[in-house]
């Protein structure tokens, strides 16, 4: 092939850095955006926090006092002024005219700074306690183990058992495997010794931890109810008929345990007070906080959408630094200040564009789902990204970015904007019904179903069909599982 040079003209779209920044900020959640703003404040000296805007609300509330409050404050101020004068007089009299050369000021008078330092220390301690890493189940057990008197041999066995504890509180291996692993270091070790140490660990907090199976865990916790009149019956049921209880075969349970319905119901109620996953009490997961981006309130019969301005720190251009662009001594300083000023302006413009887009999309969602705010989930209308994109004049990808990890505070709770989008199911009358509304109907039907004869998925589909909603049984099962509702055989309960 012969190599040659050719000129070709064409047009293509390229994303500028400013547009890339605007798109990136648009898809960030409130917590991530707050972190992004703080990082930008640290890197760009032309941008600073707007303290005046942060305190404007307090100033407004102070100016809005009534005459009665003003008079009351005047009286209080006069009283406080007299009190301060009296304290100042006492403080002045308590200080000697001359202090010895080797004396310290704090020896004579304890300043408010010391009190402030003490409060600061308490605040630091509180900060450390609130931001300390979460405690694992092993840490919790080892802390109790260090407070328990044991021989060195038993301690080594206990540490080996604790190392095998899973987050749910159960052992991840058998006691025989633990015996095999410890036989190398401990001479003449027997399985009974491991059982004895396990027996002590199972009484640690939370009770039932270090158990090998569910039956063993429940029996250990049941020991706290030895004074219960049905303790023996409950112990017998857990020891021999736990699978029947899991399958909710109450007829067989009543026949084998020789308990009548009322007694069996009380036994089951006692078992339900036990924790099948004792390790869940020690939660290792960090709490995820949700900050709503917009709020919806009804004022004068109209639903209004507002941005949550308190979620993000207010920022502004530093006028002192921006004025240096004309007074800088070197060309490098002028270039740096101008570039930083341009970046700060683009950043603020991107934030403003994000807020405007978010408010526009949220207002569109509220206007289309007005029945949800008035009547509840059963009145939810089907809506997809294309519907909102067409109404606000944006691309579907933009709507997807806006509604991801963005939350709306409503009188019915806090919902992600994605919650209001759902597919549709055709009705018998030729209309459409939202899948969210169908889930709400299924949840309501399950809540009102007979206790001894729960509704099956096929029966739920039939009831929905009678209401004009054509939905298959497998679709009902999918919606039911999405709401963590167990199947009908597991929902059976005694009256």
UniProtKB/TrEMBL annotation:
Residues 127-321 form the RNA polymerase sigma factor 54 core-binding domain. GO terms for cellular component: DNA-directed RNA polymerase complex. One of its GO terms (molecular function) is nucleotidyltransferase activity. Residues 49-94 are annotated as: Disordered. The keyword DNA-binding applies. Residues 64-89 have a biased composition (Basic and acidic residues). Residues 335-493 form the RNA polymerase sigma factor 54 DNA-binding domain. Keywords: DNA-binding, DNA-directed RNA polymerase, Nucleotidyltransferase, Sigma factor, Transcription, Transcription regulation, Transferase. It comes from the Bacteria. One of its GO terms (biological process) is DNA-templated transcription initiation. PANTHER family: RNA POLYMERASE SIGMA-54 FACTOR (PTHR32248:SF4). Belongs to the sigma-54 factor family. Sigma factors are initiation factors that promote the attachment of RNA polymerase to specific initiation sites and are then released. This is RNA polymerase sigma-54 factor.
């Amino acid at each position: 092939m012969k190599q040659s040079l050719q000129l070709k003209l064409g047009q293509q779209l390229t994303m500028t850095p400013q547009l890339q920044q605007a798109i990136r900020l648009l898809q960030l959640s409130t917590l991530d955006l707050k972190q992004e703003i703080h990082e930008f404040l640290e890197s760009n000296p032309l941008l600073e926090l707007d303290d005046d805007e942060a305190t404007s609300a307090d100033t407004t509330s102070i100016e809005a006092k009534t005459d009665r409050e003003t008079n009351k404050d005047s009286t209080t101020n006069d009283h406080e002024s007299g009190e301060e004068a009296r304290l100042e007089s006492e403080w002045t009299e308590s200080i000697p005219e001359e202090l010895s050369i080797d004396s310290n000021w704090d020896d004579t008078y304890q300043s408010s700074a010391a009190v402030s330092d003490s409060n600061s220390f308490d605040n630091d301690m509180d900060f450390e306690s609130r931001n300390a890493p979460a405690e694992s189940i092993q840490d919790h057990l080892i802390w109790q183990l260090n407070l328990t008197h044991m021989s060195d041999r038993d301690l080594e066995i206990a540490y080996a058992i604790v190392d095998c504890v899973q987050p749910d509180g159960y052992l991840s291996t058998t006691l025989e495997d633990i015996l095999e692993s410890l036989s190398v270091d401990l001479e003449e070790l027997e399985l009974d010794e491991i059982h004895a140490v396990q027996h002590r660990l199972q009484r640690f907090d939370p009770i039932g931890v270090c158990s090998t199976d569910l039956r063993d865990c429940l029996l250990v916790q049941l020991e706290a109810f030895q004074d219960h009149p049905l303790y023996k019956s409950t112990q017998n049921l857990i020891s021999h008929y736990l699978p029947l209880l899991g399958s909710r075969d109450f007829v067989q349970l009543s026949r084998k345990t020789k308990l009548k319905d009322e007694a069996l119901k009380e036994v089951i109620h006692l078992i339900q007070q036990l924790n099948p996953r004792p390790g869940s009490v020690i939660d290792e997961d960090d709490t995820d906080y949700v900050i709503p981006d917009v709020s919806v309130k009804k004022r004068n019969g109209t639903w209004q959408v507002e941005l949550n301005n308190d979620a993000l720190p207010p920022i502004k251009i530093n006028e002192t630094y921006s004025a240096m662009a004309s007074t800088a001594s070197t060309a490098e300083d002028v270039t740096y200040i101008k570039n930083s000023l341009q970046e700060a302006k683009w950043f603020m413009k991107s934030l403003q564009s994000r807020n405007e887009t978010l408010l526009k999309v949220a207002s569109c969602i509220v206007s289309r789902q007005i029945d949800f705010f008035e009547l509840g989930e059963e009145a939810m209308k089907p809506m997809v990204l294309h519907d909102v994109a067409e109404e606000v004049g944006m691309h579907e990808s933009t709507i997807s970015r806006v509604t991801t990890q963005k939350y709306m505070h409503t009188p019915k709770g806090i919902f992600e904007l994605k919650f209001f989008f759902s597919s549709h199911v055709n009705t018998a009358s030729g209309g459409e019904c939202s899948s969210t509304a169908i889930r709400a109907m299924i949840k309501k039907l399950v809540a009102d179903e007979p206790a001894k004869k729960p509704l099956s998925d096929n029966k739920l589909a039939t009831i929905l069909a009678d209401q004009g909603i054509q939905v298959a049984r497998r679709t009902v099962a999918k919606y039911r599982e999405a709401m963590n509702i167990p199947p009908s055989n597991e929902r059976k309960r005694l009256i």
